[in-house]
Specification:
Glycine betaine ABC transporter substrate-binding protein, disordered N terminus, D-Maltodextrin-Binding Protein, domain 2, alpha+beta, two-stranded antiparallel sheet, about 300 residues, globular, transport, about 20% strand, Dipeptide-binding Protein, domain 3, ABC_Gly_betaine_transp_sub-bd, membrane, cell membrane
Length: about 300
């Protein structure tokens, strides 16, 4: 082999090695001596959920509040969001998602909220029970149970965790109800039997609301004898259904921020029974290994 061939071969090997090295880089490593910004690492995308969810409105507000001009909020679903998060974490790649607590993903992964100094997502929230007008007169026993229903984030996390591990929501809820008889007794009180009367509960497809709605459904069916239909819809139709009397109740109203728009629109047509769970939160969430602490830093 002559010197020219050796030189060409050396150049080819160097190029191939450089290509392999570059292909194995994770976002955030230096390229040409310059570290990629967080915006470049995530392609200026925030991974969201259902377009009608209140958290999506808050995320769009954050984009405006923090002047994230070229950023895109990707619509999808809660399941699609967690699938994208799982894939990114397994590959140790950067990702920014819309997140909320309680949620099983905080137990499974090491995550953190980005600070929100402009309060685009509001502060701490509560999940309220909201019922249609006239429910107390039509179904006083169901009304009483719904009014007394209150549990903790740990309670909810237990049901969410069982579902995430593969149990059907109905099974996970029934098992939790069976294991917490004394707590359920407090909700039921002296409520009488319904003998197969029908009730409709509305809920959104958030893991937290799947858990709570199925628990309430299990209690109303097993303890009072109601025949309960759980209707999975988006937030707007959920509120509209209760305001219009087509749906009897929900235990899925995030207030005062996430569902603020719907509450203001329908507050005179529904009855708010108050919080059934306290200490919730929404915001932008990232894996703990990402070197960023605030939404303000997304433009840097």
């Amino acid at each position: 082999m002559n010197m020219k061939s050796l030189f060409v071969s050396a150049i080819t090997v160097a190029v191939l090695l450089a290509g392999c090295s570059d292909g194995n880089k994770t976002a955030g490593e230096t390229t040409g001596g310059n570290a990629k910004s967080v915006a470049e690492q995530v392609n200026r995308q925030l991974i969201g959920i259902d377009p009608g969810a209140g958290i999506m409105k808050s995320a769009n507000k954050a984009i405006a509040d923090y002047d994230l001009k070229d950023w895109k909020l990707v619509e999808g679903s809660g399941a699609a969001m967690t699938a994208a998060l799982d894939k990114a974490i397994r590959e140790k790649k950067p990702i920014i998602v819309t997140g909320w607590t309680p949620h099983w993903m905080f137990a499974k992964y090491d995550l953190k909220y980005l600070e929100d100094p402009k309060q685009s997502f509001g502060g701490e929230e509560q999940i309220h029970t909201v019922v249609r007008k006239g429910l107390k007169a039509d179904h006083p026993d169901a009304y009483a149970v719904l009014d007394r229903f209150e549990w903790s984030t740990d309670d909810m996390a237990a049901v969410m965790g069982a579902i995430q591990e593969g149990k059907k929501p109905e099974q996970a809820a029934q098992e939790w109800v069976g294991a917490h008889a004394s707590q359920v007794d407090q909700w039921v009180g002296d409520a009488g039997k319904a003998d197969g009367k029908a009730l409709k509960l509305g809920y959104v497809a958030w893991d937290s609301e799947i858990a709570s709605t199925n628990v309430v459904k299990a209690v109303l069916e097993s303890r009072l004898g109601y025949k309960v239909t759980a209707l999975q819809v988006e937030a707007g139709p959920m509120w509209a259904g209760i305001a219009g009397g087509d749906t009897d109740a929900m235990v899925a109203a995030w207030l005062p921020t996430t569902h603020e728009e719907y509450f203001n629109k329908y507050k005179d047509k529904v009855e708010d029974l108050g919080p059934n769970l306290k200490g919730t939160k929404t915001g932008l969430v990232v894996p703990a290994y990402m070197d960023i602490g605030s939404i303000e830093d997304l433009n840097k």
